[in-house]
Specification:
The complex is a heterodimer of chains A (about 120) and B (about 110).
Chain A: E1 4-6, E2 10-13, E3 19-25, E4 31-38, E5 42-49, E6 56-57, E7 64-70, E8 73-78, E9 87-94, E10 106-107, E11 111-115
Parallel strand pairs in A: 2-11
Antiparallel strand pairs in A: 1-3, 3-8, 4-5, 4-9, 5-6, 7-8, 9-10, 9-11
Chain B: E1 3-6, E2 11-14, E3 19-21, E4 23-26, E5 32-38, E6 44-50, E7 56-59, E8 62-65, E9 75-77, E10 86-93, E11 100-102, E12 106-111
Parallel strand pairs in B: 2-12
Antiparallel strand pairs in B: 1-4, 3-9, 5-6, 5-10, 7-8, 8-9, 10-11, 10-12
Classes of the chains: A mainly beta (about 120), B mainly beta (about 110).
């Protein structure tokens, strides 16, 4: 079974702090993703990466950055945390897959981040 | 553009009732289609998938059939249980992209 591990289930930080959320997957997946999930807004893609050192902006990248130095690890960075970044953050990974055998994403358990 | 539309929740049913959660999609080509489930306090888990037209995905008593003619992938279960209470997400992945596009989710509550 694929295992996607997020470093913290719950995290409390203060406004203005630099915050790191870590995600590790153990199945040699090329693609990794960061989402935030908010009531009434569903899942929104922040950033994704399809290879080491590669990254692409998702739908809501403002206020965030990412780092992918190793294939198995994808970090989300809040440069200067603000209260509107209080949310559930979900990491996911997937194989590239070939056409018509497209693979699903596998998710971690999420990090509930509170910015005070 | 590509999109997924699923029925608004919350959906509340009694135990052993029949469940349908509607999902329709907009995409060109041959996307793969997925249903994910999110239990309270957890991340999303893949429930079932279908990769081509007329495929039926099934798992844990849930089923969904990839209908290209109606661009739909409705989730069904013949007899729901209290333990099925969760949020369900319909999603698609296009052949040429890594991203998955999610619907907005449908919250399901099952009464004993």
């Amino acid at each position: 079974d694929v295992k996607v591990t997020q470093s913290s289930r719950y995290l409390v930080k203060r406004t203005g702090e630099k915050v790191f959320l870590e995600c590790v997957q153990d199945m040699d997946h090329e693609n990794m993703f960061w989402y935030r999930q908010d009531p009434g807004l569903g899942l929104r893609l922040i950033y994704f990466s399809y290879d080491v050192k590669m990254k692409e902006k998702g739908d809501i990248p403002e206020g965030y950055s990412v780092s992918r130095e190793k294939k198995e690890r994808f970090s989300l960075i809040l440069e200067s945390a603000s209260t509107n970044q209080t949310s559930m953050y979900l990491c996911a990974s997937s194989l590239q897959g070939r056409a018509r055998t497209l693979q699903p994403q596998h998710f971690g358990d999420g990090t509930r981040l509170s910015i005070l | 553009g590509n999109s997924v539309t699923q029925m608004e929740g919350p959906v509340t049913l009694s135990e052993e009732a029949f469940l349908t959660i509607n999902c329709t999609y907009t995409a060109t080509g041959y996307p793969s289609l997925f249903w994910y489930v999110q239990y309270p306090g957890e991340g999303l888990q893949l429930l079932l998938k279908a990769t081509k037209a007329d495929d039926k995905g099934s798992n844990k008593g849930f089923e969904a059939t990839y209908r290209k003619e109606t661009t739909s992938f409705h989730l069904e279960k013949g007899s729901v249980q209290v333990s099925d209470s969760a949020v369900y997400f319909c999603a698609l992945r296009k052949s040429s992209a890594s991203k998955i596009i999610f619907g907005s989710g449908t919250r399901l509550s099952i009464r004993p």
